[in-house]
Write a structure and sequence with these properties.
Length: 195
Amino acid sequence: MAAPIIKQKKLIKVKPKPGIEDMSVIGHLEEFRTRLIKCVLALAVGTLISAIFTKSFLQFLLIPMGDVKPAALQVTETFVVYFRVALLGGFVLAMPILLYQIVRFILPGLLPSERRILYFMVPGGSFMFALGVAFATLVMLPYTVGYLKGFLSDLVQPFYSIDYYVSFVTTLMFWIGIIFETPLIIFILAKVNLV
């Protein structure tokens, strides 16, 4: 009986960026801090830009309420609601930069084949998140609010707070935007053989 032939696999050496192999934990933390500051600045700029259009967007979000006008139950409620909507708009506007900073932080630790896949994440993730927010706003919100307004309306007099309504709407929009990113995440995980 002949002995089995064992073939040795060649190891592929990947050259990291200069200085990456020498970077200490403190160096990685400093780079993380720099990326995090850029993300916060992008979110702040996006929120400021979004604040210009927030009143119009808020009027658009109130359309599913019909002729019912929500009430402000506290002195600061309208102020908080205004900036919650501006923050969500800023998050949507800043999404490409946020994803870019995440990708740039993890890129040095990836193989070249994994890097190519990750380049689809920034435009794809931004598009999918915006598509999810648009779907939640234009399709889900009118039906959801209509159903919830009519639920037990023969037994209960509905009285809506603007804070709770906008909190519900922005939470719905944000999480549907995140859910719309699931196919992209699964695609990337499948390409790197994690799924």
